[in-house]
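Final paragraph of the annual report: two paired records, presented back to back.
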Amino acid sequence: MRSVTIQRHCGVAAVLRDTKCVTDQTERAARYFEDYVPGFTADCGSFTMNEADIIAFAEKYDPQPFHVDPVGAKDGPFGGLIASGWHTTSMMMRQLVEHWVSPESSLGAAGVDELRWPRPVRPGDTLHVRGTVLEARRSASKPDRGIVRTRAELHNQDGDLVMTLTAINFILLRDPS
């Protein structure tokens, strides 16, 4: 049987499926490797994209017409202005740093796998971040840390999935003994 939890956070309804543990704690929590149990899910806050920020980011880093020209974008492939995926990724990363990884234990990342943008993000969209631990294992070569694989998801105000990625982080153990 599949469990479904409807959770409201910052006015956004998110459907969370097959979760073992869900928290809507938005304050930064000190987490160590032992806290990242497979199935653990945490809401990591929300943010709203606005047209001025979308254009400013794109002008500097991703100057494609559908990111920088609201008038011209109306006749483009998305029928209007959309945010650069890299802008969306950067905004999500900020939420993950504030609400998922802990400065007390984070040792950086090995990388990101499976980055996807299945739907465009538009000006005015409010995006909700959720992290779920997929895998956590002790490091074979460094006994003071573990490796945590996290699926990060971004949903818009309508509950539509707009971005996913799988992050691989190095996390200190609370008690390496």
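The closing record of the year follows.
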Amino acid sequence: MAKIESIIKSEIQRLAKYEVRSVFLPLRRDVWGMRLKLSNLIKGFTVLDRLAKETAKAKSAEPKLEASPEEVKASRFTPERIRHLRKKLGISQRELGILVGATIGAVASWEKGKFKPRGEKKAALVALRKLRKRDVRKMLTEKAGAKEKRPIPRRRKINIKKRRSQKENK
């Protein structure tokens, strides 16, 4: 009787292991795939995090045009005054936009009288009134230099043989 019990017990254990393996193997593959995706996401995140830090560092290094809130509130900018300020500093609309942080279209709209500068842009224009041509040129070259120094994210190169083998496998 003991022999039959041990045979049945071993057979039950064998079948149970087989069932567990049949359920566990697909789960193991799914976990492996998820780990692979997670590692790729982490790699992508670290690259983006590094770029964000470098961008923040570059922005903090850029010279800022600041004016007191009282000066900004008291200032009256007409299209003629904005154009006169730009001509006095000897800069183009594009360069004024770079300094102030606005687009060329916005600067053109200010000079045509369609819109008025507000907030930070107006404060930057007030601060520009205090500067000389030499200071403005220096700021422009610094901003241009900061843009050139930004690293371009590199793509990982995939071996041509690997690409071909991937295409063949599909």
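The chain has two domains: 2-61, 69-149. This concludes the annual technical report; the extension proposal builds directly on these records.
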